[in-house]
Q: What sequence folds into this?
């Protein structure tokens, strides 16, 4: 998968050299390019923002550097990339959207700052990109870089080969709509807290049943909105395993 990120703070993307994503880059599974938006300015101050037409607080990112940057990136390959503009006004990222994006060959991230990017850039980009605005959640960050990092990590780990143990991908929160069960490792006793007996029993049937019940209980307690409709609203002690 190819990933391009355009930002006025390219250094923000440095963590993508670390851990499993860094390894995927070095092995060629992930072809990542970070571009400094200011490279596409032509004035002495390398200006990327200006005041909003119609008034209002804050600054707006100018269309010209964005237009040039997007043209430059689109010229790198023949195919039509997905352009992701992270922003609180976008569609909420979830595991199913991450899976959909993981199937793409090429993602480009346009990281806005200030109040955002001149709206005409979105219209302009449609001729060469499949444009998507994606939000991490209902809160406001200072810019798109942190969101791009999160989206890239959520997506890249689903690209075959990026996670060594592919089985672990199927046993995690959100993969089948429920949260994950609690996990434990050695020692058996720690600070007066014990590992649940069932996990030491060696009875795989009981362990699977216990884990399933824990997932239901956890989801009911922490994220009742995720429960299937037939279980939603049921008192916790009625949420039984299947
Ligand atoms: N940029 C600013 N806030 C954001 C959010 N909640 N999600 C994605 N990008 C953002």
A:
């Amino acid at each position: 998968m190819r990933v391009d990120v355009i930002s006025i703070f390219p250094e923000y993307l440095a963590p993508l050299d670390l851990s499993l994503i860094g390894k995927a880059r070095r092995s060629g599974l992930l072809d990542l390019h970070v571009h400094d938006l200011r490279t596409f300015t032509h004035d002495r101050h390398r200006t990327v923002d200006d005041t909003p037409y119609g008034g209002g607080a804050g600054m707006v990112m100018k269309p010209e550097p964005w237009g040039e940057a997007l043209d430059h990136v689109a010229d790198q390959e023949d195919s039509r990339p997905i352009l992701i503009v992270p922003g609180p006004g976008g569609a909420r990222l979830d595991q199913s959207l991450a899976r959909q994006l993981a199937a793409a060959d090429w993602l480009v991230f346009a990281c806005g700052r200030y109040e955002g990017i001149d709206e005409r850039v979105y219209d302009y980009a449609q001729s060469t990109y499949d444009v998507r605005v994606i939000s991490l959640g209902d809160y406001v960050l200072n810019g798109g870089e942190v969101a791009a990092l999160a989206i890239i990590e959520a997506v890249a780990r689903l690209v075959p080969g990026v996670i060594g143990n592919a089985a672990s991908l199927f046993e995690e929160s959100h993969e089948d709509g429920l949260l994950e069960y609690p996990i434990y490792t050695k020692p058996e006793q720690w600070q007066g807290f014990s590992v649940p007996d069932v996990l030491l029993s060696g009875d795989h049937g009981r362990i699977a049943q216990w884990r399933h019940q824990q997932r239901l209980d956890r989801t009911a307690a922490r994220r009742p909105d995720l429960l299937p409709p037939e279980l939603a609203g049921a008192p916790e002690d009625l949420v039984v395993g299947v």
